[in-house]
Amino acid sequence: MTLYGDNDPPADDRPTVQVTAVQWPVEELEPASLQRDGKRPRRTRILIAAGIATAVLASVAGVGAFAYAGDVPRGTTVLGTELGGRSQADATRELRAALERQASELNAPLPVRVGERTAELVPAEVGLQVDVDATVTAAMQTQAHVVDRLVGSRTVRPVVTVDEERLDAALKEVLGDQGRKMTMPGITWDGLTPKAIHPQPSLGLDPEASTQAVREGWLSNGPVTIPLAETHAMTTAEEVDRMVAELAKPAVAAPVTLTTDKGSLSIPPKAIAKSLRFTADKAGTLAAEVDVKQLRTALGGDLAKVEVTPKNARMTLSGGKPKIIASSDGKELDTATLGEELLAVLPQPDNRRVTGTLKPTKPELTTEKLAGLGIKEKVSTFTTRFSGGLSSPRSQNIITAAKAVDHTLVLPGETFSLNKHTGERNYAKGYQDAPVILNGKLVPGVGGGVSQFTTTLFNATYYAGLEDVEHKPHSYYFSRYPSVIESTIFYPNLDFKFRNNTKYGVLIDTSYTSSTITVSIWSTKIWDRVKTEYSPRRNITKPKTVYLEPGPTCIAARGSDGFSQDAYRVFHKDGKVVKREKFSWRYAAEPRFICGPEPESS
């Protein structure tokens, strides 16, 4: 064993022994019989002293070597296994072997208590295990005096790891409904009366504390108690009450005057209550703000006193050609800072005034944008005929729907929905009762006849080559419509939709006579021609006769055959067919409805 002085570093990581020099009393070490003339020769004295010192040093070095042998201090145990005096590699192997011997004990279910409930966790299912390498490293780092290393003993706790996410999920299942969510602080409105919502703390698991408790309690005897933690909102009940008294109640005590360069308007307490919001963040900090969108809604038409609504460009047809009606800019209240300025004056009992700024606003569709949409020519047109003249309820329903759609602009990429465009077709909008198909028979229904307009519009978009998104042919075939390529409609379940799948704008033009309804599509022509090719009718079925009870709700019908058929939309470009689309439908045989009793058989 090599000894080093204080300033000489060892050549490897083995422990060193520092020796303090000792002055030996030579006189006491020399017997008189060995002296000559009463004195021992100096050289002899030096040799004897050197020999004794060497023996002492050898003894000390031997003790130190024994005490510091191995990487793990002697007397060190982990889970009852002696690792002391071993190298790191040997200690690692020994600890792994010990864990294998104790596998059944270590994998035994771990009893836990969460609140008032107990359960058992399977260690493997939550990732509980001993980290062998980390445990051996911890054992190696144990500090001890040389004497302690010779005769002492120490126990090192194993380093335990766990899958925190799986453990938290398992403990939440045990917690069940014992926990509670935090009641966030808030203030709501009952008319003009503010209502305080006082916070209540949440009760639940603290994942960090749960992990610590399980890691420490896994290898101990007895169940592990999982701590539950309460989390309190940052805003207290007292602070909520103060916000009610100092802000909410004064806010609706009187109107606020909004002044602009175009005049003034009064913001009434009712509009203030609808727009003053009290919300809490995740930490339960309650804050107030004015929702300017809600404020605009609450003020409604009063904003017209100070604002100018922008107008979109529109397109009409004049002299058989598209004509643009120019757009116009508007002026709108700038709400960027209005909410904060209004919030600042709401607690005040008087001088409740704010200044609003009007900013220029562009319409969604400007004259320039509309002019660039390429609406320049009639792309397609389709006409269907109806009977009864313009005075019949069915005819009136067709014309009412046509007027609602006339001059509708569909921008590139937009999808047009007839139900969305007209909304519910009811008496208030001018629709009348006329026959509709319901549950397989004709019955009076508001808006009857609109299916004819739907079919006319569908065919106009069909022959314009626009994308079919949604349509449904009738259950029965009516000769006034082209077979297969026709569409019924019923609000809100059955709709007709098409998408403008071109880069040009699409203008829908509707017109009518006393016996016809026509829909034309204006845009830029893409296809040379779009036509329909039919397959033969197949699977033909004959109608049966049904006798109905006479009365105002009974509508007779002559009946029609049922059949299946395919229709192909064929696209022509540059003198050749470039695309074909298949449409198929199966018509049921429409019964022959007779309003009267079935005749008695002879």
TrEMBL record:
It comes from the Bacteria. Residues 236-354 form the YoaR-like putative peptidoglycan binding domain. Pfam families: PG_binding_4, VanW. Keywords: Membrane, Transmembrane, Transmembrane helix. The chain crosses the membrane at residues 46-69. This is Vancomycin resistance protein YoaR.
